[in-house]
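Z., the sequence and structure:
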Amino acid sequence: MEPGQHKAHEMATKQRDIGVAEFFARNRHLLGFDNKRKALLTTIKEAVDNSLDACEEAGILPEINVEIIDMQNDRFRVIIEDNGPGIVKEQIPSIFAKLLYGSKFHSLKQSRGQQGIGISASVMYGQLTTGRASKVMSKIGEGEPAHVYELKIDTKTNKPEIISDATKEWSKPHGTKIQIDLEGLYQKGGQSVDEYLKETAVVNPHVTIIYTNPKAEQLIFPRATDVMPVKSEEIKPHPYGVELGVFMKMLEVTPSKTFQQFMTTEFSKVSPKVVKEICEIARILPNVKPKKISHEEVEKIVKAIPEVKIHAPSTDCISPITAELLEKGIKKEINAEFYASVSRSPAVYRGNPFQIEVALAYGGDQPKDKQARVMRFANRVPLLFQQGACGVTKAIQSINWKPYGLNQSSGSLPVGPLTILVHISSVWVPFTSESKEAIAHYPEILAEIKLALQEAGRSLAKYTAKKAKVKGELKKRSFIQKYMPHVATGLQEILGLDKADEEEILRNLDIILEAKRGKLDNMEFDPTKNEEYDEEWAKIGKEESSDEEYGEEREDDEE
């Protein structure tokens, strides 16, 4: 045997299959377990997201208990309990101890989870860092027993390893409770468990969250409404978003007898007339059998689809928060002086419906000399990491915020007392990685975010213009009031009046000044046309308004 052949045979003996669980066990950072602090947050996030999805699917107002117990030496016990519909006994091991197992991957409707990885990855991380099994208890209704499992994941086979299986009494009528021991790090701040739960309460006003942190401090986020979100309906894929390989696979497995039947039953918004137009462009017959269509013909079909006008997909599959509830949520958590919210009409990327909603909170207790705070959400889930890589951030940076009364360096976030909230609802959110932390830079999505922010920004511009106008008037008024006594004295001397008349002149001047309140600055404002406003704001913006001035401004508004 030649040396090269010997080496090839030796290398061949080392080749073997790689299990999906084994791969993610070695690449846990792909799932959001980069470090101990992030691992703690990711575990709670995945469990809470699952609980919210389950409750909403069953039409139950969610009540979620989150508890973190400090077990010392960077080890924590995480317990999440919900009042959802529970899980059928046979499915519990696979849902919690098998990666890529779930009901949402093939379903085209809005949901928090998508890939069937999240909670099972948390179970795997817990056993990798502590060696302990996770405990799951679930009950599906009154009179039913609660099933209790202790589970691990066999990372080589990606199958659940059942340590114990028992039943017990549980006073709760239905629900699920999971306990995971893991290595973690608890810290407060912008990327903490506390912030995640707070932001979750903002965009889920129908949920009650009871949270006990590792210091045994309890926080309660009560629901703000008893109205459940509109239930999203599952839809079929839209032909505009189909890719060549996916289309070929669909042709192979379809039970349809003809191409026309395949197109009208497997896709949404496709009528026989649309199929006829596609067939004419692709030069194929509508009654051809799907399995008989060649690779070349599939390519022609896929190229023909964009040339035919097809109605946009149904938007019943998404459930937006609505501008009204979004504004209520942000008012509850952020103390500001001005709020604006916008909910755009649904749009489509790659055949997937999506909808953008934004809210702005300006002024109040927010810092004036720092960049605006950005709150990003996807399907009602906070995105706390990778802000710089997110399409939401890029869209915000692409807007010129100066006409809206804020300072901004080129290509940066605006500077000022502002919080910017952006939410995307979609049947398939295009995340940049499996850890679901940033939105991909799809042009259609970025354009919708920009349009929504500009719409909300116009309301903000009116407010900041009014505030600047009032501030300018206060400044001019202070100058006039400063010299009014001198004017009164001058008039008294010129007219030869008595000293008592000087006081009457001063009172009359004050009456004239008061009659002109709100009319000292007649400058009209249009952020798209008035260049003079930018210069005026640049001057006024250098001077901070005092609390006394702000109080006078509010009184003026009331008048």
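The chain has four domains: 20-221, 239-307, 323-461, 463-558. Residues 314 and 524 are 43 Å apart (CA to CA).

Let me know what you think.
H.
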